[in-house]
Amino acid sequence: MKLDNLDRRILAALQRDGRLSNVQLSEEVGLSPSPCLRRVRLLEQSGIIRGYHAELDRGGVGLGLTVFVGIKVGQHDDEVDSAFRDAVADLPEVVSCYLLSGESDFLLQVVVPDLPAYERFLRGTLLKLPGITDIRSNFAISTVKRETGLSLAHLPGAAG
Questions:
Q1: Cα–chain-centroid distance for residue 114?
Q2: Which of 32, 54, 126, 150 registers the highest number of CB atoms within 10 A of its CB?
């Protein structure tokens, strides 16, 4: 889908506040409500807008420890890869997983209440995942920057 200036403004507004009503959104982007709603629906149907959610404070819900876990797998075949990906997809403690090039094969972002909870997760779950040969845990001390919105500066009509 080719995005234009109106799409960029709609996306930027919804990233700032996903709870905007269609009327509020249409006023903010300078479009009447019906065409605005059609554009939002097209953005949703194309998969550019993947969903709407509430961003929670991790500490506020008792998830005070973030761990970045580098994982190496021993075999690089479809069966092991598929089994590993399926297993990780089912772990609620893993909030993101990336396939990497470099020292690790995968990087997991794990969120748990505290160090004892991570130890239980490591011993009871991670070490039992298929194909793993090495696990390296890096503990986040503090968050310097955490953005949920994406930069849209490269799209048509963006300033700068």
A1: 21
A2: 126
